[in-house]
Amino acid sequence: MTTPHDHPRDWWQRPGLEARGGRLLVAGRDAEALARECGTPLFVYDLTHIEENVRALQGAMAHTGLPWKVRWALKSQREPAVLARIRRLGEPGTPEFVGLDVCSPGEVEHGLAHGFPADEISYTGTNVSDRDLDVMLEHGVHMNLDLISQIHRYGRRDRGGTIGLRINPRVSAARPESGISYYSGDAPTKFGIYPERLDEALAAARSHDLTVDTIHFHVSHHLLNDDLPAFERAVAAAAAMARRAIGAGCPVREINAGGGLAAVMRQGQRPLDLDAYAGVLAEHLGALGVTIACEPGEMFCKNAAVLLAEVVTVEDRSRAGDGSAVFAGLTCGWNAMNLAFVYKELVETVLCRAADAPRTAVYTLTSHINEGPDIFAEDYPLPPLEEGDIVALLGVGSYCQANWNVHCLRPFPEVLWFSERHTI
Known about the structure:
This protein folds into 2 domains: 148 residues, Beta Barrel (Lyase, Ornithine Decarboxylase, Chain A, domain 1), CATH 2.40.37; 254 residues, Alanine racemase (TIM Barrel). The chain is of the alpha/beta class.
């Protein structure tokens, strides 16, 4: 267990999120002052950081000298302010324009309603129903199909059409010790066409005169620099399947490497070297003469937002002789910030009035939702807290606001969007 004295205090600092004079600043604004003015819980976004992250990945892809395309995983963050910012990064039809990766009819319609052309939207879902297919065909978005039965259902509706195939190379980019194989790996998953059934999938497409122009794979989850060797093995396996499809006569124009690129969330993690990531894709896919695409969500937006909450309870709840068990209760819960409750991820927390102070106390951080497991952290080191303090939960810009839940009828948090950073 990390002790109060060895817990690092400043690994999270960056332009737009920093301690100045001991106080936490977000986009150049005093975080505690924002919470006092607007109330808590309060999401605060630094839109400039989102743009910086997108530009960095686009730059790495461009450095390969190969055709490339970057899309935004809409399920990670769909708020209009964010979509407006990324939509301005390029003109539709150019590599610089950030398209959308979507996975439901509702996301298709959301993307179209917020100004993304249908030909800049890529649909990759699983267990697609007939109703889903009807909506997608109505709007004309490109579909990547990941089950053989889907190919037949699609083909019956759009004979002679064009599709992509989501493949599953049975190789994961997750380190073995993580135990994660949600998307690809030795254990069966619900996603993708396996190597031994690729010929069957291609035959299903031919039976409906469908053209396969895209190969899609998703092998990553929280991909950081230490995961690159495993990622390269997975990409090599996916490339072998793509060559099989091309050798079978498929005019593949794009190979989409999916998402799963991570943001750094704790001390000791090495951020993903984006040039090395793009280099792996280029080495294994570049000779195929295709556009190389990817569609992250987390790495673009996760560290671009904080959730501000008030400390409403500080109470030692241990029995005599059992040691300390000080609980600090916050004005937020899993319904607004589910990273700990659903995804089992540590959420770094900072005391806004003493952001870089020594962490000499230990707390169990809990929510205001009436569910026992809704705990943000246990044995978590912080400077001494007082009731009425404001804390910031970091790294909440993706898969939090987008997953908000009405549970316990707690209202949706207020949100501040800052397009520019104040300089002090």
